[in-house]
Amino acid sequence: MKQKTDKVNNAEPQEAKKELQEDKQNEAQPAESGEVTSEACGGAGEEPPPVVVDWEATVREQEKITADLMDRLQRNMAEFDNYRKRTIKEKSVIYDDGVKDAIEKLLPVVDNFERALAAADDKENGLYKGIEMTFRQLSDILKRMGVEAVPGEGEPFNPNVHHAVAHVEDETLGESVVTEVLQKGYKYKDKVLRPGMVKVAN
Q: Residue 103 has what pLDDT?
């Protein structure tokens, strides 16, 4: 009977040691996923520190960005306006040059119409009237386009629009006066298409 009691007493300390070891192992194991300890949170009941924002600095930064964008916009608008004006001017120059070139090629035709009308004897002839009508129509078109004849007989000689091919002495006329137009001169707007070939007195 005594031997059985000793065995029971020896078993109790061993079970107690086993329980202590299991408790230590449980304490050493990390917390399962999803469990948050109070130490990880910095302690229960503590609030995160407040976020401090420098609003004045933020406003100054945004104002600087806005000013920079406005400056770039104004520069782009000015460049576009200059480009538009330059393009309009270039188109006008190209158009005028094209018109000038076309009219210069038509001037010999105008000269031939004038010669034909001047050489005709019968002014009542149907052919003459047809040529005269065609010449008048052509002259009207040129006039609407801005083409006009250079002033001729009786006008002072102007080297910018006249080309003197002969000189005559005439006491009845003043100095450097156009006495006769040998070939009409024409100008388109402010550009001389062809100077007039003239005789000049004195």
A: 94
The answer for residues whose C-beta is within 8 angstroms of residue 46's C-beta and 6 or more apart is: none
The pTM score is 0.59
Span 68-145 CATH architecture: Alpha-Beta Complex (3.90)
Low-confidence stretches of the chain (pLDDT < 70) are 1-45
What is the rounded CA–CA span in Å between residue 92 and residue 167? 40
Q: How far apart are CA 75 and CA 77, in angstroms?
A: 5
Domain ranges of the chain: 68-145, 148-202
Q: pLDDT tens digit string along 66-80?
A: 999 999 999 999 999
CA distance 47 to 1: 66
Distance, in Å, from the CA atom of 182 to the CA atom of 198, rounded to the nearest integer, reads 5
To which CATH superfamily is domain 148-202 assigned?
A: Head domain of nucleotide exchange factor GrpE (2.30.22.10)
